[in-house]
RNA sequence: CGGGGCGUAACUCAGUUUGGUAGAGUGCUUGCUUUGGGAGCAAGAUGCCGCAGGUUCAAGUCCUGUCGCCCCGACCA
């Protein structure tokens, strides 16, 4: 056993030794991605894409439940259109890719490959919104976008990435603000219920706002190594974009007024979040709700009569109960299969061998804690469902514990530095006066930047951690991915 | 974009200092034996040495450029 354990550790770099290398080992060895010859553009392989499809399916259902419709905008934005909102173009221009030629013809107005689609939605809304009766429009699209990033990492920062972007337009500011909050809550609920990942909901500081937004809200998660990851954002635009793009409607009093807008998105980065929240030294650990395979059946001595048949029978039973299940009947050894599916993060493994069949039972092993139990084949569906819940709950609990353990309340700059020095990275809770200067100073002196102003406020002290002037709010600081 | 490391078989890498027939382990294929934690033996297949130029009788090895990957910063979802 000890020897075999060592072998598996050899296959992946230990996360304590080198977290970054551990991460890239996982994405390659669990067959989530493959690099291509274009920097920052990766092949999302079937196993990785299946995770995304599950994320899409669940989220899309939540969007539809909250009244949203899917649309699809073009991939290209003419430069003149991108220019219309000043802050927006300033924020995105440095990282857009340009199409300058069509065939051999040079384009008069070059085209930007969308880095985000606010401008396209605005152009469209200007065309279709005329009356208060046309509002609201609750649109979403599932597409890929391109941002010419300088340094890239699979899922966490790639030049092309998959996402969904919701773009809504409302008659009143109140309605739009409500929408912004609603979708942030949808994201938080999804992360907790489907990804088993606790998140902090809050507002971004002004320096961290989306280009062109009046307010940006985000959910922040803490990864296993103590670094923060923004897992989703929701923006309130006010009527700024409407003014820039001349979107107006006639209200009930027959007055021409500007509507109010929002946008919100999550990306394939969520897959990176799942890897870094739940993974361990044996590989990926997937939350059952999004795992492409929820239970893998490994037949033992499968050449013996009745073993494969029993495995298939079990597969059919579980499939009928709606569980995503696979029998591995390849001629690899059982030990190989155990290690393989642990690497791939399959939440539940079921072993069936001659000894089990004699006793009408099987062995179930849960991935997150590798606990083994003997379970009767009678009513196996309920048992497996129970184990999947157990994995989900276990993952959520461990992730929450990790976050709590790595969250520190600090009341002075020195304390922040000391805590980070002593315990490594994590969330720092500290009071803030609201001045950008102090935000910058904290980052410069301690290395942690502001992550968000959480909705759940605490009063750690009366004064700003940096300048000592009266504090306005508590901020989460942290190193970010 | 700055600093550092690296591109040789599917993977991990040796060979580059000192130019001279392309290597190892793992994996892959076939057969037999195995099967409750990455099995054993035997036989076999696999290379634009990242790409483009240059130097040379001769380049994986030297020179120039370029593309990509990893790490640390700055920026971002």
CATH topology of the largest domain: BirA Bifunctional Protein, domain 2
CATH superfamily of the largest domain: Bira Bifunctional Protein, Domain 2
Q: Runs with pLDDT <50, length 5+?
A: 1-10
Secondary structure category: alpha+beta
Q: Can you tell me the overall shape?
A: globular
Number of strands: 23
Task: Give the averaged pLDDT, no decimals.
Answer: 93
Any idea what the CATH architecture of the largest domain is? 2-Layer Sandwich
Identify the CATH class of the largest domain.
Alpha Beta
Which terms would index this structure?
481 residues; five-stranded mixed β-sheet; 15 helices; disordered N terminus; RNA-binding; Translation Initiation Factor IF3; BirA Bifunctional Protein, domain 2; Rossmann fold; alpha+beta; 3 domains
Could you characterize what this model shows?
- By secondary structure, this protein is α+β, with helices and mostly antiparallel strands.
- It has three domains: 19-278, BirA Bifunctional Protein, domain 2; 295-390, 3-Layer(aba) Sandwich (Rossmann fold), CATH 3.40.50.800; 407-478, C-terminal domain of ProRS (Translation Initiation Factor IF3, 2-Layer Sandwich).
- The chain is 37% helix and 27% strand.
- It has 15 helices and 23 strands.
- The protein has helices at 2-11, 19-29, 46-65, 79-82, 86-92, 118-128, 173-193, 240-244, 269-278, 307-320, 334-343, 354-358, 380-405, 413-423, 436-446; strands at 33-35, 42-44, 69-70, 76-78, 97-102, 105-113, 137-146, 160-170, 200-203, 215-222, 228-238, 249-250, 256-257, 260-267, 295-299, 325-327, 348-352, 361-366, 371-376, 407-409, 427-432, 449-454, 473-478.
- The strands form five sheets. An eleven-stranded mixed beta sheet has the order 3-7-8-14-11-10-9-22-23-21-20, sandwiched between helices. It has a five-stranded mixed beta sheet with strand order 16-15-17-18-19, sandwiched between helices. A three-stranded antiparallel beta sheet has the order 4-6-5.
- It starts with a helix and ends with a strand.
- Residues 1-10 have low confidence and may be disordered.
